[in-house]
Design brief:
mainly alpha, elongated, binds magnesium ion, Ferritin, 0% strand, 6 helices, 73% helix
Length: 177
């Protein structure tokens, strides 16, 4: 059975992951409303991953005889002044999440909760990838500057990101219902 302190911290992290889902969905809407559908698609696929992250933590609490307590979500931001600002925010948000995963790992070690280590190690690896992917796009957008044709090329490239099969965020899945 999982201890109370780690259980509470994981409930906080479920909220953080669901807020990540929410902010990327909000960014997807921002990009679609500005006709950058590739970036909107990239953000939808990102939002899908965040829902999976929340569910990984929820499953862990269920498996460990813990207690899942879902918390209120905040809408963190709804408007961005440019694609660059949105991806810079995404990078900053992922750095914040990485800090939270580090905190969870510290708590698990202090509580000698070794059963949580494989899950937290998976998230530590995942955060390296999350920061790298958001950071790469932010760097590319900074290089692009005001070059609209380069922006459209990057938009097409990001539109090629694959959805996980059956994703409810895929417009094809939504219209098939
Ligand atoms: Mg996440």
């Amino acid at each position: 059975m999982i201890g109370e302190r780690l259980n509470a911290a994981i409930n906080d992290q479920i909220k953080n992951e669901l807020e990540s889902y929410y902010i990327y969905l909000s960014m997807a809407a921002y990009f679609h409303s500005n006709s950058l559908d590739g970036m909107g698609h990239w953000m939808r696929a990102q939002a899908h991953e965040e829902m999976i992250h929340a569910m990984k933590f929820m499953e862990h609490l269920i498996d460990r005889d813990g207690k899942v307590v879902l918390q209120d979500l905040q809408q963190l931001k709804t408007e961005w002044s440019s694609p660059l600002e949105a991806f810079q925010d995404a990078l900053e948000h992922e750095k914040f999440i990485s800090g939270k995963i580090n905190d969870l790992t510290s708590i698990a070690r202090e509580e000698k909760d070794y059963a949580s280590e494989p899950l937290l190690a998976w998230f530590t690896d995942e955060q390296i990838e999350e920061e790298a992917s958001a950071g790469k796009v932010a760097d590319e957008l900074a290089m692009i500057g005001e070059d609209k044709s380069a922006l459209l090329m990057l938009d097409r490239e990001l539109g090629a990101r694959a959805y996980p099969p059956g994703s409810p965020l895929d417009p094809a899945a939504v219209s098939a219902q």
